[in-house]
Known about the structure:
This protein is an alpha+beta fold. The chain has helices at 12-29, 41-51, 56-69, 73-77, 81-88, 95-110, 119-123, 130-141, 150-160, 167-184, 190-203, 311-314, 326-329, 336-344, and strands spanning 236-244, 246-249, 252-259, 271-272, 286-294, 297-305, 321-325. Strands 2, 3, 4 and 7 form a 4-stranded antiparallel β-sheet that branches. The model is unreliable at 354-358 (pLDDT under 50).
Amino acid sequence: MAELGGTAHLSGYAIEDLRSRLLAWYDSNRRDLPWRRTQDPYAIWVSEIMLQQTRVAAVVDRYEVFLRNFPSVEALAFAAEDDVLTLWSGLGYYRRARMLHKAAKAVARDHLGVMPRTAAGLRELPGIGAYTSAAIASIAYGEMTAVVDGNVERVAQRLAGWGSESREGQSKLSRATETLANMLLDLKRPGDFNQSMMELGATVCLPTSPKCLTCPIELHCRTRGEHPTPKRAKMRSQDAAYALVIRSRGEDREVLLDQRPEDQTVMPGMWELPALRETEVAASDLNMVVRHAIMEVNYSVRIRNVAEEEAGELVIPSERRRWTRIHDVDAMPLTGLARKVLFRAKLPELSPSITVLK
Ligand code: SF4
């Protein structure tokens, strides 16, 4: 492992060359993503928050629908929280949506609806940390500040040949990586350079098998694939079971839903199917089995058909339970699992993702 510090293995000329190779590669190879077609700091902010811990493919549709409903920071600020959560449905990590909403209110209240123009100013808003503020400020306003996410860290550390096993070593490594990322930053196109580093990490300098033969900056890289690969977090498996309770009322059909308590750390306030007391379900009662991953757990979820009169006995009691017309379910902040199940159950009014709110 090379010693931490500066850009010792890169001369001024080499840094210039690295910048121009990487930017040229980015210009011709970047993925055409909707948030790359805008300079609007609000739209960039929404995309950056959605992309945290969520795959690009899952974000693309949600991003466009979200912006159609809330096209400006003020539109978001004045929206009802339930509507914001509904449009976040399926992206997971709902705390991000609540913080985004809270920060939009702060912009409307304290900044006359205009987003702060610097990374330091943006960091004052709730839920905006070093990474997000640097991304918005460099992409929307051209501020000279490096964005250091997991992809950029990996590229920079492989370029420099750095690594560390110990925890103390890790914090020194993080500081050195940030310094290096700032030194490499292109002076004329800092936003594009940041995005090119992230794009390289996402598509070429991959965690387990970097594609060094097609890497535009291979010439300047110290490791060229000879770098320890990170260990993947191990997924756990767990069983869960929920009740699908549907009844008819006149012309309508209704489904029984529970609201998760507000003090839950995962998906507070979201609506879900009532949980069954027993995770074992007899084949004759089984409606479907759904696989669903949340954080590091792979759930195998059994969905049982339950008649209205059996519900009291079979499901775990809940303080916030209500019958909801199936017609109205699509506009509710459902958990991703509940949405998946209701869609697979072919309830006619439900869309696989979310629709535009009326
Ligand atoms: S040469 Fe390989 S390890 Fe080095 S930056 Fe490029 S892809 Fe990553």
